[in-house]
């Protein structure tokens, strides 16, 4: 893997953290290039990007052709387009890699069947307010990871909650390394229309189309910086704004699932029930309960999903 990884960093208003993120990636022998894609920041992030690109040949700076703001999905897509490495990995501009970031990949990618490797993400509390908001939403969870090693179809099933053992519902993009050829083969890109949850939506589709394998999942390979400006901690769970965002996210997954002829029926049903739960949460007034009654008669399982209280409230 030496000199084969393109690290893609979308940059938007990250001036306080960007240099640490870049420096955490630049020293790896595995890293061929660091692709900074600046998304029309309103702070001095662009100036920092230009300085970094000037000082090190590994660092390459790009902007959207119109130099506009297009969101993280479209920005990562541009990074994938510009990447020249055999592998691509991702890093948020306010996070950083740890020294063991590519340890698992060195061995796992010797198997040509493996198209992607993921690991565990740790946390660093940068501000006290950020810490309070994060712990209020996620408790004192030291790692974002899955519960046991898995690969192939079990990763996709696990993310949808379709495995006998509880796999875990998420692994973070910062810990993911992919063969670029797999992205091209399956025409996989981020949904540029999603301004939030585009990473989670991408991971679901990725796990279906590509053969993924767990790497280091019991200790962190990268760290998420927790500060006052993390969007993930600003929305109260099961609030109207939370339900709206989840609805948009799961509608995108549902629309994708409809077009996938070979998608297992159990997966299609699971995706539909989650999507419909958040869809029902958007209904208002007395008519809402008519929709709930109709849906529960048509699909009784919706009353047994973990998301049922989204719309029963």
Structure commentary:
This protein has 313 residues and is α/β, with parallel strands linked by helices. The protein has two domains: 5-233, Spore Coat Polysaccharide Biosynthesis Protein SpsA, Chain A (Alpha-Beta Complex); 240-312, no CATH class. It is built from twelve helices and eleven strands. A seven-stranded mixed beta sheet has the order 3-2-1-4-9-6-10, with helices on both faces. Helix 6 packs antiparallel against helix 8 (198-209) and helix 9 runs antiparallel to helix 10 (265-281). One of its GO terms (molecular function) is hexosyltransferase activity.
List keywords for this structure.
12 helices; 11 strands; 2 domains; four-stranded mixed sheet; alpha/beta; Spore Coat Polysaccharide Biosynthesis Protein SpsA, Chain A; 313 residues
Helix/strand class: alpha/beta
CATH topology of the largest domain: the name is Spore Coat Polysaccharide Biosynthesis Protein SpsA, Chain A
**C-alpha Rg (nearest Å):** 20 Å
How would you sum up the global shape?
globular
Output mean pLDDT.
Answer: 92
What is the first-to-last residue Cα distance?
51 Å
SSE ordering: EHEHEHEEHEEHEHEHHEEHHHH
Number of domains: 2
Instruction: Give the neighbour order of strands across the main sheet.
Output: 3-2-1-4-9-6-10
CATH superfamily of the largest domain: Spore Coat Polysaccharide Biosynthesis Protein SpsA, Chain A
Oligomer: single chain
Number of strands: 11
Largest sheet: 7 strands, mixed
SS summary, helix count: 12
- Which percent band covers the strand fraction? 15-25%
Poorly predicted runs of 5 or more residues: none
CATH class descriptor name of the largest domain: Alpha Beta
Helix proportion? 40-55%
